[in-house]
Amino acid sequence: MLVHRGRHPEENHGIVNPPVYHASTVTFPSVAAYEASGKKPFDGVHYGRTGTPTTFALEEAVTALHGGYRTVSMPSGLAAIANTMFALLKTGDHALLADNVYGPTRFRVADPLLARAGVECTFFDPLKGIGGLVRPQTKVVYLEAPGSLTFEMLDVRKTAAEAKAAGATVVMDNTWASPLYFRPLEHGVDVVIEAGTKYIGGHADVMLGTVTVASPELHQSIKWTTNAMGSCAGPDDCYLGLRGLRTLSVRLERHQKNALALARWLQKRPEVDRVLHPALPEDPGHALWKRDFDGASGLFGVVLKEKYSKPAVDALLNGMKLFGLGDSWGGYESLLIPTYPGKIRT
Fold first, then answer.
1. What per-residue confidence (pLDDT) applies to 2?
2. Which domains are present in the chain?
3. Which residues are catalytic?
4. What's the sign of the alpha-carbon dihedral 242, 245, 246, 251?
C-alpha cells in the first residue's frame, strides 16, 4: 500500500512518481464549467489553495493507510491541530483534552486561542479517563497515545466509546505511531491528526500536517475551515511527503529496533531512574500498547536520578557527538533534548 497508493503512472506517461503542480490560478474552458466548479469547491482542481493533483495524491495515500474517508493536508502539524479544533468548536463549547498532549496543543491552541474564542478547555488525567468530566457542552475529546514527553498510555478504545456515547467528536494526535503502527479510526476515533513533518517526511526537511476523517461531514467542516483560514500545504512539501511514505515501513522498523536497543541499554545505566517507553515490558502502559499497537516508533523519554544538577545535565548534552540538540523527531538524525513536563501539565 505504501508503494502503490497516491500515484497513477498511467495518467502521467508511465512516470512512477506524481508530478509537482505549482499553481495558483486554474483556468476553465467555459463560463458554465467555471460556475459549476463552485458548487463542489473541494472536489477537483479549482484554485491553488484548495489543492492540486500533487496535494490529492498525498491525501489519497494517507487516507488509504488510515482506512478513512478523506484527508486534508496542512502546512504543519500545528496547523492541523489548530484548524481542526476551530472547525469543530465554537463559542460556548467545551473540550476535553488529555493532560499529556503535545505542548503547543495546550499553550498555543487551547489556552490562548480557543479561550479567546469563548471555548472552555479541561485537561484530564489520561490514566483516569473522562468519567464525570463530560458536559452537555462537550463537543470534542482530544487524545494522544502515548502522551507527549511522558509517554503514558491512554485506553483509546474505551475513551472514544465514552466520548461518542455523550455525542462528542473524538480527535487523536497519532504522530508517534503513524498509521503503520496504530490506526485510530479502527478504535472509535473520528479525526486523526499527524505531523507529517516527522515520520511521513522522515528527512528533517519538510513542514507538513495531515488530518484524516471518518465521514463526509467532518471532511467538509475541516476542509472549509482550513481553506477559510488561508492554510494549505505547498506542492513541494506534499511531494516530499509522498516520497517519504514510500520508505516509511523500512525506516520505522529501524527506528523501532534502534530505539529499543538504546532504551534497554539506558535501563542498566546507574544515572537513570526510569526509561519512559511503552514497548518495554516494565512500562506501566505496556499492556495497552501491546493490545492496540503494531509497533513502536523511535521517540521515548529518560528520567535521570534527582542527584544530578542542571549544569551537570547540560554538560552531558553539550558533550554529545552523535546526538544533536533540536526540536522535532522522526528524521534520519538522532536528537536528544532536555524536557520539563511539569511546566505544561495541570
1. 62
2. 9-246 (3.40.640.10), 249-344 (3.90.1150.10)
3. 49, 102, 173, 198
4. positive
